[in-house]
Specification:
about 260 residues; alpha/beta; TIM Barrel
Length: about 260
């Protein structure tokens, strides 16, 4: 059985277009505010959503997302709030959870995946789970019809790239550079090469993250990738707005601009 995420990429390929994926941590800037902002993203043209499970010691997140996660944790965000957000947003767009491994292990692997499936989620991105430690995760995610989304980087060797993509489902998350998340003035030139390398060993869709924040950057990445991931740019708008209503409207407008840039001829 295919997930909504897989169906989205199939449809996008048939339409010869890339998919726009938006990210926010659950509970940021508040629980209700997060759901409102994610809804605005979808209304503005975002195709799929990543919901971050806030974590106190991230290894992949830059300062913007770290600050947002700190706000989420101060708001008391935990698994309950993550799943409530997932359930609300999965009704309007294919949605996945991005989380480090520790929260999954503490919650219980089977219980975590069962809850993802129960509330309509498509998959889980696990940036710090290595392929060597994935045997139980792979078996459990297959049992719960949940996509396993792994992250690859420019430093990933050819043999490892093949092993990781063989274990992946839904899409391959291509980190465009060796570094942490955050908006940048340009997308790393290594992103295109990494996508090409992934495609040489896998037929899965490839989505590029780390650094995309403008319509021009979205358009550039959409020329060679199946998906474009934007997170820090949305978070920054919420952080810099004087009110939640203002921030949500700015998020909606950025989603419109990014969608237009993505689909520009």
């Amino acid at each position: 059985m295919s997930t909504p995420l897989e169906e989205l990429f199939i449809q996008a390929r048939a339409e010869n277009r890339a998919v726009l994926i938006g990210y926010l941590p659950a509970g940021f800037p508040t629980q209700e505010g997060c759901i409102a902002a994610l809804t605005a993203m979808v209304e503005g043209g975002v195709d799929a959503i990543e919901i971050g499970f806030p974590y106190s010691d991230p290894v992949m997140d830059g300062p913007v997302i770290q600050a947002a996660a700190d706000t989420s944790l101060r708001n008391g965000t935990g698994a309950k709030e993550v799943f409530e957000t997932l359930e609300a947003i999965a009704k309007i767009a294919p949605t996945v959870v991005m989380t480090y491994w520790n929260p999954i292990e503490r919650y219980g692997v089977d219980r975590f995946l069962a809850q993802i499936h129960r509330v309509g989620g498509s998959g889980v991105i696990t940036p710090d789970l290595t392929i060597e430690e994935s045997e139980n995760w792979i078996m459990a995610s297959k049992a719960h019809d949940t996509n396993r989304i792994y992250v690859v980087a420019p430093s990933t060797g050819e043999e490892r790239l093949r092993r990781v993509t063989d274990a992946t489902s839904g899409f391959v998350y291509a980190a465009s550079l060796m570094g942490v998340t955050g908006t940048r003035t340009s997308v790393s030139s290594g992103a295109r090469d990494l996508v090409a390398r992934v495609r040489s060993v896998s037929e899965l869709p490839v989505a590029v993250g780390l650094g995309v924040s403008t319509p021009d950057q979205a358009h550039e990445v959409a020329q060679y990738a199946d998906g474009v991931i934007v997170g820090s740019a949305f978070i920054r708008l919420l952080q810099e707005s004087s009110s939640l209503a203002e921030g949500v409207e700015k998020v909606r407008e950025l989603a419109r601009e990014l969608s237009k840039g993505l689909h520009r001829p």
